[in-house]
What does this fold into?
Amino acid sequence: MIRVLVLGGAICAGIAGFAYAEDDVMAGFYGNTAVATGGMAETHTSYSADHSFVMKVPSYGVQFKGTWTLNGTQLCRTFDSPPPGVSNPLCTPIEAHKVGDTWKAGERTVTLVKGVQ
It folds into this structure.
């Protein structure tokens, strides 16, 4: 009987974890890179499940770090030290994506690529 209860609890925990992953709009971003082109410079942003992010600007050899939160349908990034002219926090619309997706974000084109780049 105890084995059945333990197994049932493990299955419920697994189902709850799966449901959470499906509900997590950021799940496809973890361990991958959002490459944004257009505008002044290409940026490479990677997001972690611990709510941290790193934004690299390869053409300028700089990177910016900070934390992110979700506010409804907005992704809000708070930079440790923001790029010049960027509001802090910077909030933009967000929707779920998977590796290989490409979409428009204002005037920029964003592609979600595999791995941290």
